[in-house]
Amino acid sequence: MDLFGPFLVNGRAISTGLQPQAGDKLSVLTTGELTALVPGSPAPDSVTADGLSTAPGAPDPAPAGWLDPGLTKLSLVGHLDGQSVQLGNSLTVLPKPGQALPVGAELKLDVNAPALTDYEGDDGWSVYIVRTGAGEAVPTLRDWVFFEDLTPVTGNVGGIAAAVLGQLDSRLLDHGGNPLRATESSDH
Amino acid sequence: MGFSAVSAAVHKGGVYAFYCANRKASFPEGGLLGVLRRAVIIPPAGVFELFDIDGDGVSSGGAIKGVVGIESSAVSTGDDLHVLYLATRDRNVPGDPGDGLGASVEDLRHASVHMPGPEVAGAPYIWLSETIDGAGGVEGKVAGDTGTSIAAMIDQAAQVHVFYSLGGITGRTTGGFDLRHAELDYVGGATEKWRRETLDGAGSTFANAKGQKKGRVGLGTAGVRRNGELNVFYNDDNNANLRWGVKPQGFPWAFETIDGRARSLGGRGPRRYGSTKDRIRAGRKAAVKVGDQVSVFYEDRDLNVLRHAYKRPGLPWMMEVVDGDTTLGGRVQSAVGKPAAVVRGGFLNLIYFDAGRQLLRHAVLSQ
To answer: Contacts of residue A174 in chain B, CB cutoff 8 Å?
Structure first.
């Protein structure tokens, strides 16, 4: 198993130095936002590596004239020996079922955008890639799936301690030892 | 009295919290005691009890009178519940400024109770307490400022380990500011059951250890066991770095700087993955094992964001910003920190404080 990256993708093709071998699997973990002004668009778009969508869960395919027509507009794409691979936000494992990875060529990462796209700001997508060889177990790479505010706290918090108790999810205690929240069990 | 950190442990189905509480003293000087108090919630009825353990001179065998428990860390070994904590005033130590609480000290103390079944409300459990480091003595004890940045954990054999900071050494202008380790060794000497040692900060002190450095280290500790392997995280305060010590079962300690100013893989700016060149805050970290992954959460002092370093077998450390830098995916752009982490049902749950918006926050990592 080998780790490649992290890489920053923010407009130029990125060489990863990774040349897949026969039987390899690639776990691509991505986070962050990219701001891009596509020629002809009235305003820049800030997107995750999933790119643009026409509706929630409905990727917007790029037309001719974009780097990879048919793949999602302003998404993270991989290039391997002339083949284009759709990547995206969070975790993508390659090859996808029924597909094969080209062997011996270097993987490059890029943004699916037309030429003359203007990349604004200093943001971009961060990418880790784990290569797993033939016969090795693909590692479980984890990503954040949920964030929430819990409860207001006045003043300074000296420290937080958390514990799991039976049916209770967690007990959180402030600096005076007072329980702040106890929630019923819920499987995430 | 200022703030008191709180520690928690689950023992025989009950959840325990330990913290410092003020109590009016009975002695004539009229000072305000700081006692180590434990709060417990006992299932299934959820009975809530409070009980003092130390600081009042009477609540446990070996109790002192003064101020204790401003920092603590607790673990259960199965039948015994242990809490390691800081003593900052001791009425028995000469040098009382006039409030009756005794001289200022910084000692590491330990209290434990044998409780082989679930706690019974109102039952007279016998707690025992003792000073294990900081007051000088034999068997590896130092005379100095110990007992801050406490991280307790148990090993594969259910023996208690505690990692803590040594500040200055009494009467010396050099040395100190190290990471210390004490192990409750039940098969040790007849008169001394704790074994103490300096792990890092004093240069090469173990013949077979790798990576020990000389310098100011040891604040903001956190520890976690993965299989038989002990992992401890702490600050290198000379360089505002995150240090990692690891001791696989049957092998010597190895120490390494894994993030902070000394690293240059990531750097500041748009990268959400990779290491940082920023300063790592010397506050308490949270370390946890999820599956076969070791995770540690810590604060970027320059950007006020919460960071996560994680290691899987066979791979190098991977790092990311968790929250504080973006609104992506429910995150916030706000000063966040003070992490606590637990694993439940295979999911890592992270609880932390949003100081910018004065809120507690919660994040969940995929299984």
So the answer is: 6
